[in-house]
Amino acid sequence: MNESAQSVIKKYKSLFSLSGKTALISGANSGIGKEIAKAFLLCGTNVIICSRTAGKDRSLNKFLSEIKQDNITSLCTESDFVPQVISIPCDITDEDSVNDLLEKITEKFSTIEILVNSAGINILEPACDYSINSFESVLDVNVKGMFLLSREVGRMFMIPQKYGRIVNISSVKGMIGASENYLAYCTSKGAVNMFTKQLACEWGKYGITCNAIAPTYVRTNINKDQLDDPEFRKYLVDRIPLCRIGKLEDISAAALYFSSDLASFVTGQVLCVDGGLTSRQ
């Protein structure tokens, strides 16, 4: 192999690399966020998991235990760097709690290069009966929490270092409606999309990119009962050109792309990881 070819290979390996960087992931105690955390660790990225129940959540503690037991961090990179994973409790809807989270992070890590806003909730109620408490709860987690984490991580780490990657987990329901019960959720994900675009416009001058991933149904513990219903599953699959439900790794792969330097000239985008669903609407 000639020197030119070797330099090209080295260049693209470098663009792919996330080794040695540090990522803060909200909502990584389950589902999509958990899979993204695992993917980052395998790529040699330090991972900070924040959730309200960190330290008390049995599933999260089991996940952290599995990482140590499987020695996942030693399998991840070709370099000698071994990434770390920690969990810190935080209520992302509370400004003081977010500031406390970042202070605790500085005790362990010098900076944060990547922020993944994965925390999200949904409360199913028909529009005519949707309570103000339910509406506010969904908007608080899905929008306010994303805003607070992004603003504070940007202020403390990304803007001073003139570098950052922000990835927001949206949904196709931020673009297309549902038949019923999704008033607050659809509203919140539409807000996520525009927040992503506006932050990209304002923070591009600091070398910070901000993008969003909009999945369709992906099998998690939250929706497994729905997806186990053959009639409901058929209804979903029949609408998706690729004829299948999304997988967790479909979403984590997109998060890795947006977080890497392969996407250094990509910002303000909402990537539909939906098997072509939104193309058919």
Secondary-structure topology with pairs:
Layout: H1 3-16, E1 22-26, H2 31-42, E2 46-51, H3 58-70, E3 85-89, H4 95-106, E4 114-117, H5 132-161, E5 164-169, H6 183-203, E6 208-215, H7 224-227, H8 230-239, H9 248-259, E7 270-273, H10 277-280
Parallel strand pairs: 1-2, 1-4, 2-3, 4-5, 5-6, 6-7
Averaged pLDDT, please? 91
Strand order of the largest sheet: 3-2-1-4-5-6-7
| Shape estimate | globular
Number of domains: 1
For this structure, the CATH topology is Rossmann fold
For this structure, what is the CATH class? Alpha Beta
Q: Major β-sheet, in short? A: 7 strands, parallel
Distance between the termini: 48 Å
Please state roughly what percent of the residues sit in beta strands, choosing from under 5%, 5-15%, 15-25%, 25-35%, 35-45% or over 45%: 5-15%
Q: How many strands appear in the DSSP assignment?
A: 7
| Oligomeric state of this protein | single chain
Proper CATH architecture? 3-Layer(aba) Sandwich
Order of helices and strands: HEHEHEHEHEHEHHHEH
Structural class: alpha/beta
Name the CATH superfamily classification.
NAD(P)-binding Rossmann-like Domain
Low-confidence runs (pLDDT<50, min 5 residues)?
A: none
**Proportion in helices:** 40-55%
Rg for CA atoms: 19 Å
Q: Helical stretch count?
A: 10
Q: Could you list some keywords that capture this structure?
A:
281 residues; alpha/beta; Rossmann fold; seven-stranded parallel beta sheet; 10 helices; 7 strands
